[in-house]
């Protein structure tokens, strides 16, 4: 009897929603700068898009890349269209979305044998080799280095050599939430564009397009929690973010009483998921709530009542300590329940 063929397992293409996104939300000014530079005939060969995680840096980079590869700089602007507009039915748009355009190369961090995902030296070298070739489909070649701060050692130095002696008709676009982690020599050879977080209304509009089935009230709440990052809002939507935010709100509101039975129940709930995703999200939301309250108080605004339990300087120290605790627990695979209890113990004011 013939054996049944093994099922084919396809890896999820995490980059597809970004490559295939036709929308431009919140970054029209930056897109206009890119378009004007391309139309001027003096397009810088390297760009650095900097800004907080999840606000659309890679989305803008792909938008510019496909517009440039489609010959947008040589065509008159479409009346009433947003900057860098290319219709989804355009063949270049479709090939970029499919990841099959011969002149666009994307480098993204990949997890290896180590703990952290990195952009590998082999991928950088392959992209550099392709840049040395004649464009296969048009007049330009385009390389996106997403999360460029994850390059290490040889990878960063290899890219630096190309930035110092760029091939003609080639554009490299780096994105990063942490530009200070790049080599100063790399930063100095790129024209920098800083992207700001979106407004809550803009973030909610992205959620409405990506998650139309979600209740409008939940989208508004997620937009407020995400602090201008649609990427973070979508991640929270997929990872029970609203439920975890309610836990954070309850914990902070109950700090004055120090109910340890409640703290154990919270720790059990946060540590229940074996993959650790709930723990990472809970700790991130907890630190975000603290930093937001401290900023609000420092500006003279209305702050939540629990903030008065400690001086602002102590909250800042706790914010740092919680960050280290979360990182060590995640990297070293420590007991997550105990880590949550430790965090809540630090936050609970001493009894007098």
From TrEMBL:
Q: Which Gene3D superfamilies match?
A: P-loop containing nucleotide triphosphate hydrolases (3.40.50.300)
Pfam families linked to this entry: DNA_pol3_delta2 (PF13177)
All copies of the AAA+ ATPase domain together span: 43-198
Fetch the InterPro entries from UniProt.
Answer: AAA+_ATPase, DNA_Rep/Repair_Clamp_Loader, P-loop_NTPase
Tell me where on the tree of life, at the top rank, the source sits.
Bacteria
In the record, biological process GO terms are: DNA-templated DNA replication
Q: A GO CC term?
A: DNA polymerase III complex
Q: Known SMART domains for this protein? A: AAA (SM00382)
**Which NCBIfam families does the protein's record reference?**
PRK07471.1 (NF005677)
Name the chain's protein.
DNA polymerase III subunit delta
């Amino acid at each position: 009897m013939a054996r049944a063929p093994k099922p084919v397992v396809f890896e999820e293409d995490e980059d597809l929603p970004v490559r295939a996104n036709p929308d431009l939300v919140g970054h029209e000014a930056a897109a206009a700068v890119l378009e004007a530079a391309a139309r001027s005939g003096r397009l810088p060969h390297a760009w650095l898009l900097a800004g907080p995680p999840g606000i659309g840096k890679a989305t803008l980079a792909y938008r510019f890349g496909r517009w440039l590869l489609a010959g947008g700089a040589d065509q008159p602007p479409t009346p009433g269209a947003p900057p860098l507009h290319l219709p989804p039915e355009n063949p270049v748009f479709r090939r970029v979305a499919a990841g099959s355009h011969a002149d666009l190369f994307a480098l993204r961090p990949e997890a290896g044998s180590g703990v952290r995902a990195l952009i590998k030296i082999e991928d950088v070298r392959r992209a550099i080799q392709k840049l040395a070739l004649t464009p296969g489909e048009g007049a330009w070649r385009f390389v996106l280095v997403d999360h460029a701060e994850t390059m290490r050692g040889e990878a960063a130095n290899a890219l630096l050599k190309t930035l110092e002696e760029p091939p003609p008709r080639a554009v490299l676009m780096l994105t990063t939430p942490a530009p200070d982690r790049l080599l100063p020599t790399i930063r100095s050879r790129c024209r920098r564009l800083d992207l700001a977080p979106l407004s809550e209304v803009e973030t909610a509009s992205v959620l409405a397009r990506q998650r139309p089935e979600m209740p409008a009230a939940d989208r508004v709440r997620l937009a407020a929690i995400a602090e201008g990052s649609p990427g973070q809002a979508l991640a929270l939507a997929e990872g029970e973010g609203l439920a975890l935010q309610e836990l954070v709100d309850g914990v902070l509101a109950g700090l004055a009483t120090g109910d340890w039975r409640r703290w154990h129940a919270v720790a059990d709930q946060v540590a229940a998921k074996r993959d650790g995703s709930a723990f990472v999200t809970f700790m991130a939301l907890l630190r975000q709530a603290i930093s937001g309250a401290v900023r609000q108080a420092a500006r003279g605004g209305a702050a939540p009542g629990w903030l008065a339990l400690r001086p602002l300087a102590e909250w800042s120290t706790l914010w740092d300590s919680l960050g280290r605790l979360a990182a060590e627990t995640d990297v070293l695979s420590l007991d997550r329940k105990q880590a949550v209890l430790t965090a809540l113990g630090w936050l609970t004011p001493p009894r007098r």
